[in-house]
Design brief:
The structure holds 2 protein chains of 2 kinds. By secondary structure, chain A is α+β, with helices and mostly antiparallel strands. Helices cover 37% and strands 26% of the residues of chain A. Chain A has 12 helices and 13 strands. In chain A, the strands form 4 sheets. Chain A has a 5-stranded antiparallel β-sheet. In chain A, strands 1-3-2 form a 3-stranded parallel β-sheet, covered by helices on one side. In chain A, strand 12 and strand 13 form a beta hairpin. In chain A, helix 10 packs antiparallel against helix 11 and helix 11 packs antiparallel against helix 12. The radius of gyration of chain A is 19 Å and the shape is globular. Chain B is built from 18 helices and 25 strands. The longest helix of chain B is centred in the C-terminal third of the chain and has 22 residues. Chain B is an alpha+beta fold. In chain B, helix 6 crosses helix 7. Chain B folds into 3 domains: 199 residues, Aldehyde oxidase/xanthine dehydrogenase, a/b hammerhead (Aldehyde Oxidoreductase, domain 3), CATH 3.90.1170.50; 314 residues, Aldehyde oxidase/xanthine dehydrogenase, molybdopterin binding domain (Aldehyde Oxidoreductase, domain 4, 2-Layer Sandwich); 116 residues, Aldehyde oxidase/xanthine dehydrogenase, molybdopterin binding domain (Aldehyde Oxidoreductase, domain 4). In chain B, strands 3-7-1-14-11-12-13 form a 7-stranded mixed β-sheet. A 5-stranded mixed β-sheet of chain B has the order 9-17-16-15-10. Classes of the chains: A alpha+beta, B alpha+beta. The interface between A and B is medium-sized, with 19 and 23 residues.
């Protein structure tokens, strides 16, 4: 049973922003795969602004170094998009694992980020691609780093009158890239943990390593110090052992020792070793 | 007809979306009822204030336990469970009030206006505490039942054994997770009778309970089965029926109930968690000499099918093997956990996990092949079971092993962490050591047809089609001349429940008996020489002979109260599953790759439906082995209770063994529960083969499996 609400379906971004600036307690519907679940649990909003008909924020476009992802791109669309597959493979793979086919067809990346679940599959890949989010309101546009946008699990910096319209990521063509997640069943499952990686190597040396580990820390974690220390290091067993050990130390530093780490730490360790070995 | 892959008789309608489920029903002035449930596991109810709830817009009636006109308790085995709790609640989810509103929204909203003052009592959370605690859940103590199976002399058996293997096993709660949640509609018919249409596995039982609770005669109650979207035992106990009857009784208006998934989870009975201590003794040649099993079960606060499970697990505790010395001790305790009831297999899938792990453990020590040790000990014609029942007919167990044998002998690991496991089972078809008959009748109709009146609840498994095939085969008649009148207490006799893998065997036989009588009659009257049914009907009517009934009650004996010696079932189904798994030792993820399943069903009335049962059983077995775990207070819905999806399914090849059962219709037995029972066991044995660890707790989900793998690694490191 859903609580009562009124809804509007604006056809343009301008109309949507106008509604948002004039309505109190309005909530944006960008696919509904999180919103409807919350409403069924009793969260109520007097007004729903359904933004799914705004065409220009559905587009994925290539701008050379960067890629613009319209916030209304569905998980399915991202998972099969050619630009994403070539320059941000981990994101395509991660979006291909979200929920079930029905959820991938309805749920959008913008909604996924605003919901800010720490287990969201898109987060780790977006982090290694240094994602920025673009937030628009009637008063103007602001851009911020994804890491700054998400304040805490399920909490972001979005303001009541704003729409998250675009996500900008840096393409990493030519990197060895991927996304691995661990779940309790083969599909339609929340990630128990996940890792996104993009690695550039040359002649037995690491040139650039980007890693993000999901579901171990309050938000997916990018071990930047270890990434920097791997630069120009020889790719050998010892380097890998040391790097993985440092990453695990950092995770424990961020989160403290959690009961789930009995499981997660050995798994992260084994997966990171595999990933760095390639 | 019998033995053919006839299309299910309901398939076209179901594909077209035509059948009406209870939750889709419509009626003028339809009310909606919801249940207010206890948020406390164990508490005194000090006061109930419904005045504010009653004052909410659209609220028609609030019903409490005091309002129940007849008997206040119900129960499928014993009448111990309050329909609406008075004075005390014993589990989270126990019904206290029934709120009837003009709409579902109104009724649900009013729930938050109910004021109940509770005073907590210590909650008993496990059977071990139940055994020792001074807190009694019921006046006569916390022990529901204690059953033993004793054969030979188990101590002598161990003394004569060369190896003894002893392990403990534990399992947890599971939810049935049927697709359609509990639902129904109740109304008064023109004669003022109470009619309940519901999603159920047993209409006659529900009819009797309604009559008792309302204090009215059975002929003032009619129960009709709506199209039912799965049961698995969860729709055997009363779900919505008594509430609907009470609401109709008081409002005189049609009333609907439809549980949300959350309500279904908190209210429905669960699979029994069992703690099993298992000791097996064997000679060097692999022959099992003795089995000692101690089973402690958590049945929750009310009986439901707890006694049934308590006995059935003891009787099945050796698995499908001939063991000369047996001592099984099974106790079931009350707790303040969810009520546990019937769920596909009545405890036997849990036991199969234990006895099959034991067989592999013995084989490993003796350096014997897991298939060979089963071939050596398997039940065959002339074998004596744990209850000293001699099996004379339809003992196809060894044949199921032989069907699997070529694949087993040729198995090849595809990686260093892949493995193969065997799981076997036997399962008594029908209720345990009690009379459990089915009745049906055939009627010649005035429009020149034959009507089969059946009280069998089709819950998706295909029983209507099976009965149809048995009828047509026996009558030797074209199906255009036959109609099925079904699932209605007004038009059918009691057939017992759709449970215990009994409908093909027992109701099938009743249909066969009725059809034989009619077949002879039709033959006498010249039907098979061309005379029309309409013509024969006219003559039959003048003879007052238009109804031909069939009856079958499988021959069983009562069991000795001390040793359980006797014949608890007339016949047993047998099966062997072989499962290939692939374990990721880094993450603890176990994928089930391929299953070969062989089932002795006596006679496959419809081989395709047998296979359908096995496919579903394998899916459920994957859930039992690897992921399903109902945690009281935490598992709220399918969001955090994981059941397998199609992506978890392996390739499955089904082999049918037909060792005909002489008392069954055309030799048929049952397969509904057998399809599930050996699956989890075969996965667990596969995991051991793959990564060398021995899971002792179900489900063996990724975290438990990873821990076993890590523990084994550190053991190895500690070795010099």
């Amino acid at each position: 049973m859903l609580p009562d609400f009124a809804s509007v379906i604006p056809e343009s971004k301008e109309d949507a922003l106008a509604y948002l600036s004039s309505l109190k307690s309005a909530k944006i519907f960008a696919g509904g795969t999180d919103l409807l679940v919350k409403m069924r649990r009793g969260e109520s909003y007097s007004h729903i602004v359904d933004i799914t008909r705004i065409r220009d924020i559905k587009v994925i476009s290539d701008h050379g170094e960067t890629i613009n992802i319209g916030a209304l791109s569905t998980h399915y669309e991202i998972s099969v998009n050619q630009i994403i597959s070539e320059k941000a493979l981990s994101l395509a793979q991660a979006c291909g694992w979200v929920g079930s086919p029905a959820i991938r067809n309805m749920g959008t990346i913008g909604g996924n980020l605003v919901n800010a679940s720490p287990a969201a599959d898109s987060l780790a890949p977006l982090l290694i691609h240094d994602a920025d989010v673009v937030l628009e309101s009637k008063d103007g546009t602001r851009r911020m780093r994804l890491e700054d946008f998400i304040l805490a699990p399920y909490k972001t910096d979005i303001q009541p009158h704003e729409i998250l319209t675009f996500i900008t990521i840096k393409g990493l063509p030519g990197y060895r890239e991927g996304y691995k997640r661990v779940t309790k069943r083969a599909a339609w499952a929340i990630s128990r943990l996940s890792i996104a990686w993009a690695i550039q190597e040359k002649g037995g040396f690491y040139k650039d390593v980007k890693l993000a580990i999901g579901s171990c820390t309050p938000m997916p974690f990018r071990p930047r110090k270890v990434e920097d220390s791997l630069k120009d290091r020889a790719k050998d067993e010892k380097t890998i052992q040391v790097a993985v050990g440092e990453i695990i130390d950092e995770i424990i530093k961020v989160s403290g020792m959690r009961p789930s780490f009995v499981y997660k730490i050995p798994v992260v360790k084994a997966l990171l070793e595999d990933i760095l070995k390639g | 007809m019998v033995g053919s892959n006839r299309k299910r008789i309901d398939v076209i309608d179901k594909v077209l979306g035509k059948p009406v489920f209870a939750g889709d029903m419509k009626a003028d002035r339809l009310l909606f009822a919801v249940v207010y449930r206890s948020p406390r596991p164990h508490a005194w109810i000090k006061s109930i204030d419904v005045s504010e709830a009653l004052a909410q817009p659209g609220i028609v009636k609030v019903i409490t336990g005091e309002d129940i006109p007849g008997k206040k308790q119900f129960g499928v085995i014993k009448k111990d469970q309050p329909c609406l709790a008075e004075g005390r609640v014993r589990y989270v989810g126990e019904p206290i009030l029934l709120i009837v509103g003009e709409t579902e929204n109104a009724a649900r909203k009013a729930m938050s206006s109910v004021k109940i003052h509770f005073e907590d009592i210590e909650a008993i959370r496990d059977p071990f505490t139940a055994e020792k605690s001074g807190t009694l859940i019921h006046e006569d103590g916390n022990l529901l039942g204690h059953r033993k199976v004793i054969k030979g002399n188990v101590e002598r058996g161990f003394a004569e054994s060369d190896v003894i293997v002893e392990h403990t096993y534990s399992t947890t709660w599971l939810d049935h997770g049927f697709m359609e949640t509990e639902a129904g509609v109740g109304y008064l018919d023109d004669a003022g009778r109470i009619v309940v249409v519901s999603s159920t596995q047993n209409i006659h039982y529900k009819m009797k309970e309604i009559s008792r609770v309302l204090g009215i005669s059975e002929d003032m109650v009619r129960v009709i089965q709506s199209t039912t979207g799965g049961g698995f035992g969860g729709k055997l106990d009363v779900t919505v029926e008594l509430f609907l009857a009470l609401a109709v009784y008081y409002t005189k208006r049609p009333v609907m109930m439809r549980f949300t998934r959350e309500e279904s989870f908190v209210s429905n009975t669960k699979r029994h968690p069992l703690y099993i201590e298992y000791k097996t003794g064997a000679k060097k040649d692999g022959s099992i000499q003795a089995v000692k099993v101690t089973i402690i079960g958590d049945t929750g606060p009310y009986i439901s099918y707890g006694e049934t499970v308590c006995l059935r697990v003891a009787v099945h505790s050796t698995g499908p093997y001939e063991v000369p010395n047996v001592h099984a001790d099974s106790r079931m305790f009350y707790t303040n956990n969810p009520v546990c009831g019937a769920m596909r297999g009545f405890g036997v899938p849990q036991l199969a996990f234990a006895h099959e792990s034991q067989m592999d453990a013995v084989a490993r020590i003796l350096n014997m092949d897991p298939l060979d040790i089963r071939l050596k000990n398997g039940l065959r014609k002339g074998s004596s079971t744990a209850t000293s029942q001699i099996l004379h007919d339809s003992v196809g167990f060894i044949d199921t092993l032989k069907k699997i044998e070529p694949f087993w002998r040729e198995r090849k690991k595809s990686s260093h962490t892949s493995g193969f496991g065997i799981g076997c089972m036997f399962y008594g078809c029908g209720n345990t050591a009690i009379s459990n008959p089915a009745k049906c009748h055939l009627r010649l109709t005035d429009d020149g047809k034959i009507a089969l009146h059946s009280g069998v609840c089709e819950i998706g498994q295909g029983s209507d089609t099976i009965l149809w095939q048995i009828l047509l085969e026996t009558l030797k008649i074209d199906e255009k001349n036959v109609v099925l009148v079904r699932g209605d207490t007004d038009t059918s006799s009691d057939v017992g429940s759709t449970s215990a893998s009994r409908q093909t065997y027992i109701s099938g036989k009743a249909v066969y008996e009725a059809a034989r009588k009619l077949n002879r009659y039709l033959d006498e009257k010249g039907y098979y020489r061309g005379r029309s049914l309409g013509d024969i009907y006219e003559e039959a009517r003048t003879e007052n002979n238009v109804i031909f009934d069939g009856y079958f009650d499988p021959p069983t004996t009562q069991l000795d109260m001390e040793t359980s010696e006797g014949a608890p079932y007339a016949t047993y189904a047998f099966a062997t599953h072989m499962t290939e798994v692939e374990v990721d030792d880094k993450t603890g993820v176990c994928l089930v790759k391929r299953v070969h399943a062989a089932h002795d069903v006596g006679k496959a009335v419809n081989p395709r439906l047998v296979k359908g049962q096995v496919y579903g059983g394998v899916a459920m077995g994957i859930g039992l082995a690897l992921m399903e775990e109902f945690i009281p207070g935490k598992s709220e819905s399918l969001d955090n209770y994981y059941m397998p999806t199609s992506m978890d399914m392996p390739e499955i090849e089904v082999f049918i063994v037909e060792d005909e059962e002489p008392t069954g219709p055309f030799g048929a037995k049952g397969v509904g529960e057998p399809a599930l029972i050996p699956q989890a066991a075969s996965i667990i044995n596969g995991i051991q083969d793959a990564v060398g660890v021995k899971p002792s707790q179900l489900p063996c989900h990724i975290e438990r499996l990873k821990k076993l793998i890590e523990d084994k690694k550190s053991e190895r490191r500690q070795e010099p």
